[in-house]
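User: Show me sequence and structure for the first protein, then do the same for the second.

Assistant: Starting with the first protein.
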Amino acid sequence: MAAQADDDATAVIRFIRAYGSKDERMPPVVLMDSPTTSQQIIGAQFATVEFDVQAATIPNLYARLVHCTADWEDDPNGFVNDVMNRTSLFDWKVAPQRSSYFNYRGALQIPNDQIQIRFSGNYKVRIYDISTDKLLAETRIFVVQPMAEMQFNFMTDFYEPRFKVSSIALTLEAVVRTQSASLISNLLNTVVLYRNARWYEPFIISERLQTITNPPQSSTYVGGLFAGGKVFRIERIPAENEYRILDLSNMALFPNTGQPVRLPLSDLRRNGSFLQRTDDGVMTTSMISSYNDEYVPIEFILDPLPYPSELDVFVVGSFNNWRPDRTWQMYYDEETRLYRLRQWVRRGIHNYMYASGTYNIDNGEFKDFTFEEFEGNTASAGHGFVAFAYYRMQDYGGYDGIIAVGNTNIYQSGR
């Protein structure tokens, strides 16, 4: 989420992201304590939030940490959501001199000397203008207090696709167990899974939550007891396809001339086919020098042969946090019979796909979108999944805490 400027004096945050520690490939998972078991789990001592700002001078901003429920509603509990839990300890860098899309890059670590984490769970990191308290941007991190183990089981299944593609689907099962006598089985009521880096597309398996928006043909199951292993299963989610790759690290192929650079070849429909493995949905920029770390205007071209879509078509990927807005919607050129989109993309290596759906004017989001039409579906897609187990903590008025985390893909199971 990034805000737009009301006037020239307002800073505009062009892009924001979060990742674990100092590694942009790691999920934004913070571990409050060391694991109580020998199981290897993902997570770091801190998360990094990084954002790019267009402003005449370094803006006066602050970041606030907001605890959320398992389904990302702001937690109304005043004990866990302290309005003063905020920080202005940003590390600022100046953009390359020729950069016209952003001027400064801010970064902060969470937790730090000003902002502490006392409770596990979901957190929104919100960036505000310090003089007006205007919300400029927002991203998400996860805080885990390891108190249980999670084991993954990964199976193939079948579903009925909307388009003529493979019907292969996935069934994922998370088994959560603990030997702690202080934890009550009924309070462990929710597991939420995400495809790696796609933190706005949750798959919710819950005994308690009513705001579940899983794929229409999927189903969920919860059973078992904590000590022997409580099972959370979701069945029949589309396998999708391996991501497309946009490599902007080559300055010769993608020079910054100020004019949109067209992709060398038009993208075509894929029916579950792909050429190479990807970075599992993340944006990687570590190979880019500070001199060239900028945004490049890119023209995406999609050839919809044999016919255009009846739905809205848009580009979704690591360059928009897998959460496109109206500015990422393509238009169909009747003369060339191609879909086109011009957008600014940060230099680096990106993963992306083409989706079709319906734009919702009321909330500014795309609904009922699918990757089937232009990407197909295949069991060979190696998407990683990350899962979080939520326990309803009873102290401090009650809140959704995360007590276990796990990750897996189709080529590995049991982690």
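Switching to the second protein now.
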Amino acid sequence: MIKGFKKIKRPFITVVGGGTGGHIFPAQALAEKLKQRGHRVLYITDKRGMGFHTQPKDIPFFVLDLPYYRPGLIAKLALFVRLTIEIFYVTWRFLLKRPALVVGFGGYPSFPPLVAALVLRVPFIMHEQNAYVGRVTRWLAPFSQKITSVFSSINGLHPQDSQKIVVTGNPIRANIAALRTARYKAPTKTIRLFVVGGSQGAKAFSIILPLAIRLLPPLLKKRLKIIQQCRPEFEKETRALYKEGGLSVTLAPFFQDIASEYKKAHLIITRAGASTITELAAVGRPPLFIPLSTSMDDHQTYNAQSIVNQKAGWYTSERGLTPKSLAHTLEKILKDPKGLEKTAERLHALGVTTADDALADTVEAVLLSRQS
């Protein structure tokens, strides 16, 4: 806690995290850290956020009624209408109980609370976890007090707004931060693959990956133990693809104890969301990234490249991905245990597990400057 907060009344702070896990988990980590410091906190999420079943403990929250983002004119119009309705709803909630500060974690679910804060002249902070600025951050950056980030510079952000950047790192869940000292050991016999993050554009994970693994050399294939996140609608087909290749697999739509899976994994195949990268760096487990090709402004490719450029991971593009090309990449990685260890070490060196404290310090600093 920064100096000065012992003598003033605890302010009421609203934290907003919705949409994907990359926005939700860091928001929850900050909400819990602020609660630990004795602040009064309200957490706002959306229906997708509720689907993760990981709401911050002992923190009041409410849920925005927003549809999933989908392409197409009608879907976009429907989203625009719901966003407008939710702006009025959140404004009304803020009038009933006015926050001293709002912290938004990006994505369209953060838009209504941040606009409501702007209308009511409530100061707000935005957290941008990606190497390329999100649209909500770009639109509202001129009005934000600070922009906390993993990076000292953010692609696509106006130079004037870049002056507001405070490098804090990306908050991660406490159970994952606790694995900071869990040393990585390269596989000698069984190779444990953990596949996670295929909730969007799942073909690369649910269809292409099983077919690629089937193309691996028999001796390498026999060593594999595969644990994979899989959307329910793809589970039957994915399981059949593995079974036809003589492979056993553990499939689940969501892993409640993901920290345990991270710890046991020898290679993690995943998307390249900033939250995932931050967690893997904290744990120090080597990743193969398959960035979501439809991610906004292709920000996941920027994220993956920033790690690959430091030789702390591998990445293959989803565009034009085939079972044969993916099998070639996997074989090259898995046949080099020393390469796995060195990659894990480099990624681990980039890990930050104190981002929630740094972000909470920024929140308190902004509040103190406003109160003074």
